[in-house]
Amino acid sequence: MGTNMIEEYNKIQKDLFERMSKDFEVGLNNVKTVAGVDLAYWKVDEQEWAVCCIVVLDYNTKKVLEEKYVVDKIEEPYIPGYLAFREVPIFLKAYSKLQIEPDVLFFDGNGYLHPRHMGLATHAGIIIDKPSIGVAKSYYKINGVDYKMPEKSEKSYTDIIIGNEVYGRALRTKDDVKPIFISIGNKIDLDTATIMTINMIDENSRIPIPTRLADLMTHKMRKKHILL
Q1: Which of 43, 158, 170, 183 is in Cβ range 3.0-4.6 Å of 179 for a Cys bridge?
Q2: Helix, strand or coil, per DSSP, at residue 85
Q3: For the whole prediction, is pTM greater than 0.85?
Q4: Sign of CA dihedral 88, 190, 147, 108
């Protein structure tokens, strides 16, 4: 991995960040559909493959409206902090197959909670110019800063503050379960992202329904394609 590629990636992230918005212009009352996005990887004869799954739901009824996926070779190497460069191309292919355009997208991963505020949820959200939310199951430590554990009760949260700036939230979606880590992607504010995430929790999981269904779908599709 040459320094030239890192420099180019940094420039792209910087340029994208200048286009990012924290304003939720859609308005919570106007949200009709949401989507969950997740990816899974595997190798065949040293060639890396991935599947990107997108599940679209009715925001109010939680009914699944559409499911799409794409399987593709992954040629970009894994570099910490630049994961989106591996994942955005296959995401865009899957997104282009959707018949229903979601109002807000939930990504299994980070958004603003990133050294340069450019996790997958932000990177992809800016490119498609849609509101997006990052939802991570584990904490991505930045500059050695730990998060403060929220209280044990459902809906409790603590802001993740790094260098006097709020990067995201540790959110307890159920009593006594491990927190999840939410951050804005694009065109949304953290309070709205928190409200929407809480609204998409059901009795089955601490993870919001859209990304949980997308995650389940990736496991199913990965198994299917490994067996082919």
Answers
A1: 170
A2: helix
A3: yes
A4: negative
The sign of the torsion formed by the CA atoms of 63, 125, 39, 150 equals negative
Could you read off the pLDDT of 8-64 as tens digits, one per residue? 999 999 999 999 999 999 999 999 999 999 999 999 888 999 999 999 999 999 999
Tokens 């990052």, located at residue: 134
The CA-atom distances, in angstroms, between 175 and each of 182, 186, 199, 205 are 17, 29, 15, 12
Sign of the four-CA dihedral 105, 111, 112, 113: positive
d(CA 129, CA 20): 9
Query: Which residues is 58 bridged to in the sheet?
Result: 33
How far is it, in rounded angstroms, from Cα 173 to Cα 120? Answer: 22
Given the DSSP bridges, would you call strands 64-73 and 47-58 parallel, antiparallel or unpaired? antiparallel
* DSSP calls for 15-82: HHHTT------S-GGG--EEEEEEEEEEEETTEEEEEEEEEEEETTT--EEEEEEEEEE--SPP-TT-
